Amino acid sequence: MPATPAGPSHDCPLCSRLKTFREEWRANEPTWFNAPVPSFGPRTAQLLIVGLAPGLQGANRTGRPFTGDYAGVLLYDTLARYGFSRGTYAADPGDGLELVDARITNAVRCLPPLNKPTGAEIATCRQFLAATIADMPKLRAIVALGRIAHDSVVAALGERPKAAPFGHGAVHAIGGLRLFDSYHCSRYNTNTRVLTPQMFEAVFASVRADLDNPQTPQRSDGEVSSP
Length: 227
Ligand code: SF4
Known about the structure:
Blueprint lengths: L15 H13 L18 E5 L7 H4 L7 H12 L3 E2 L11 E2 L2 E5 L12 H16 L6 E5 L1 H10 L14 E4 L2 E6 L4 H5 L5 H16 L11 E2 L2
Parallel strand pairs: 1-4, 1-5, 5-7
Antiparallel strand pairs: 2-3, 6-7, 6-8
The structure holds iron/sulfur cluster.
């Protein structure tokens, strides 16, 4: 599969460590996806959700972001609750689920060892995040899941991280877009109650209200508020 303007090739060679790890998993589990995971959802969406990177048994196995691992259960349940999906999530790319006015991508497209991409890998893959953002003509809002996704989105939008510090529930105005921050919906964060379903839902309730109200005043770049 060749690279597209907004996505890497199936065999993207740009991060040597991740390429080696990918080839190991292709040998271990030849039926798994084991490749850079493409974005899911229409490019005409107003909302983009940015995660960190594919999970081993989730997107790396199934080829669809957040599909097949614990984090996806809370994310897709919340998207359905706020009208951003149609159909029933069944943890399988063949479940027929469609995203409605929403798209999901990752700051890093390939599976990193121990779920921890390096700074260089995050910076290298940012070109695909920036291209994904640029390829969405109706984009109005981004939800960043966790600090790394947040920082990479801010950099992809050409802003300094200090101008828009990460904070759960914070909303930033950058480049004509609103950036909503949430703790990542990982198993660890939900098991430790760093992120509760109610906290996660509050973020998406704010996004829903923002998108449903085109009169929402634009904030100046870098301003932070709580929903
Ligand atoms: S993480 Fe991104 S840039 Fe690095 S190899 Fe994968 S697709 Fe290519």
